[in-house]
Design goal:
heterodimer; A: mainly alpha; 3-stranded antiparallel beta sheet; two-stranded antiparallel ribbon; 5 strands; globular; B: alpha/beta; 9-stranded mixed beta sheet
């Protein structure tokens, strides 16, 4: 019965883990531009920051001292301690090696909205599910070890402009992830005896795969170039504007107008925000506001993203 | 002079002529005389005056607006006035060449009606063979790059094909699909026993819509449970005289398609400015705002959302337009709606005649 579950979990990973995502295929295949690699590194850092929060939530769900002793190691692995740099620090070193500014990445101000939603959904999933389902959702680690080994190789081969020292995160996880995964898997196989519990574990892992997939969708979104839909009639009304479409008119504020004006179909979403950043150096929320605005205008049909 | 809200949307009923005979038509039941139609010049003035009142949209509708030979001029005048020109059509008698001419005149978007998801059933409701021609017109609209809304009026004979209707909208690359449950006014009220669905049909359709929405973002699907089954009235036209103004083929300025049937004084754009018709006509002010509301609406927290419901429905069912819409479960006359729901369905309907 447990063997059946284990095979089923591996089947889910084979089909739905993000190694099959088109962005990842391009990343590992060497097809990404430096801007795309940096976008991925910057955004994926938000995921790294959610991991210790998620593991903290899992700790609160267990009454078993031995379980907690084992699981707390994951938080140390990510946060580090006096003796060693943790995963978060290693990721920031990767960012620096790729030419990004540590402070900018650590500020999280440039995280794309789809990425933010996906990562927050993972923390929310663990917050709202029991210990078994939460541990099952971590079992993407079963695939992570080999996957990250591949990733380090791909970076060495295709993205030589990133120094070797920057790859320490991937290499550290190639040993940590399999250990974490074996612990998690043993727990799930021991505790998911009833068919309904096995169902819940499979569903939790599938949900986690969807979240990782959505994260990469969110990264890709940042590289798309918005422009005004040809269906829109843009009217100025004082400082504001009205974007008129079939059956709806969308009111656009003065700052929204400035964003729409920058959406010329040539610049991608990140470049639109970066262009406006120069004019508003003190606005801490600028990128978030621009991304949220572009996303909302896309959903209303005002902007189309090429 | 009273303060009137900003006009947002002008509904221009260009004609009552229509090659279709749908038994739920929102046009008046009794068109005793074929009313005189406003000329293209009259419409041009109406468009300019509407734009000056703040309007951004004009819906060119009818009847069937493409029966007018001067439609191209009318479209150009609406565009020149700065309005977003939206054609509401059955897809005939207009053809592709006619569409190209309208695009050149500044047409921006199209709403096309179909009556069902396949030819025989659709033509049976339309009362004439037209389904294939409609599909050809839809493709021509998308080929020109215009936004396309597909509109289907839902009732007991086509609700079961909700999924096929969504598939049709996808196949035609429509931007929006309006699954518009029949509103029981005019011809639809006369044919209510043949059109009113069973609750199970509506629940099943709502489930299909939810499934299909989850499958793909396109088309945007509008589906609202009809007021007869919601226990609350619809916020008709977004409130009486609040955002929309309908001008009929003979020039009457009304708050909605059906209000001409009410015993109220509305004004005519041939005799007065559109601003006066919108702002000062006694009929337009009869149910503006909420000071006129009867109980139980007056003390109801939902009055800001539904405005007491539909005045035409209150009038058609109770004889008094100032009563709470009987669709509301809190209305004194709610039994008129509840009884209709449980009445046995009829098979035959009466086609619209002009």
């Amino acid at each position: 019965m447990s063997a059946g579950l284990e095979a089923r979990l591996h089947g889910i990973l084979d089909q739905r883990y993000h190694h099959r995502h088109p962005f990842n295929v391009r990343l590992h295949g060497g097809a990404c531009t430096p801007a795309e690699v940096r976008r991925w590194i910057r955004n994926r850092y938000y995921y790294q920051t959610r991991i210790p929060l998620k593991d903290g939530l899992i700790l609160t769900k267990s009454e078993d001292r031995d379980f907690r002793r084992g699981w707390i190691r994951r938080i140390h692995d990510h946060d580090g301690d006096d003796a060693r740099a943790g995963g978060l620090e290693l990721w920031l070193r990767l960012a620096e090696a790729a030419g990004l500014e540590r402070a900018e990445v650590a500020s999280l101000r440039n995280v794309l909205p789809g990425v933010r939603r996906a990562c927050d959904a993972y923390v929310e999933f663990v917050a709202s599910h029991d210990l078994l389902a939460s541990v099952a959702s971590s079992l993407t680690e079963l695939s992570a070890g080999a996957f990250l080994g591949e990733r380090a190789e791909a970076f060495r081969k295709h993205y030589r402009w990133i120094e070797e020292a920057g790859l320490a995160y991937f290499l550290s996880r190639t040993t940590q992830a399999p250990l974490d995964a074996q612990e998690g898997l043993a727990f799930v196989l021991e505790h998911a005896q009833k068919p309904e519990d096995q169902e819940r574990c499979a569903a939790a892992l599938l949900r986690k795969c969807e979240i990782l997939w959505a994260l990469l969708d969110g990264v890709e979104w940042g590289g798309r170039a918005p422009k005004l839909s040809p269906a829109v009639q843009l009217r100025t009304e004082g400082d504001e504007a009205l974007a008129v479409l079939p059956e709806r008119a969308v009111r656009v504020s003065a700052s929204g107008r400035a964003i729409l004006a920058a959406c010329d179909g040539a610049r991608d979403v990140e470049a639109v925000a970066a262009g406006l950043r120069a004019a508003h150096p003190a606005d801490e929320r600028l990128e978030r506001d621009v991304y949220d605005f572009v996303e909302r205008m896309e959903s209303l049909g005002v902007l189309v993203l090429a | 002079m009273t303060e009137a809200p900003r006009l947002w949307n002008l509904v221009a009923e260009l004609t009552y002529r229509c090659p279709l005979r749908c038994p739920y038509c929102s046009n008046p039941l009794a068109l005793r005389d074929f009313p005189e139609q406003l000329s293209a010049d009259d419409w041009a003035r109406v468009f300019r005056e509407a734009a000056a009142l703040g309007a951004v949209h004009v819906g060119l509708t009818g009847g069937e607006p493409t029966t007018r030979r001067d439609l191209r001029e009318i479209v150009r005048a609406a565009g020149d006035a700065g309005l977003y020109t939206h054609l509401v059509t059955a897809g005939l008698p207009i053809d592709e060449a006619g569409l190209v001419a309208l695009c050149d005149a500044g047409l921006r978007s199209v709403q096309l009606s179909v009556q069902d998801a396949e030819a025989a059933a659709s033509d049976a409701i339309a009362g004439t063979a037209c389904f294939d021609r409609k599909l050809g017109f839809a493709r021509a609209v998308r080929a020109r790059g215009l936004p396309l809304t597909l509109n289907v009026v839902l009732h007991r004979r086509n609700l079961a094909r909700t999924r096929e209707l969504i598939a049709l909208a996808r196949a035609l690359d429509a931007d929006r699909l309006e699954l518009a449950n029949t509103q029981y006014q005019g011809w639809a009220l006369a044919n209510r026993a043949a059109l009113l669905p069973a609750r199970e049909q509506l629940d099943a359709a709502a489930g299909v819509v939810a499934e299909e929405r989850a499958k793909a973002a396109r088309p945007e699907i509008l589906f609202v449970l009809p007021d007869y089954f919601r226990e609350r009235p619809k916020p008709c036209m977004g409130g009486w005289g609040r955002t929309h103004l309908v001008v009929t083929p003979d020039g009457r300025a009304l708050p909605c398609h059906g209000a001409g049937e009410l015993p109220l004084e509305f004004w005519n754009v041939r005799e007065r400015s559109l601003a006066a018709c919108w702002r000062d006509a006694p009929g337009m002010n009869a149910y503006r705002g909420d000071a006129w509301l009867p109980e139980p609406c007056r003390s109801c927290p939902e009055k800001t959302r539904d405005f007491g419901g539909c005045r035409c429905q209150a009038f058609a069912l109770t004889g008094d337009a100032a009563l709470t819409d009987p669709a509301c479960a809190l209305a004194p006359h709610h039994a008129l709606v509840a009884d209709a729901r449980s009445a046995p369905p009829e098979e035959a309907w009466r086609y619209r005649v002009v």
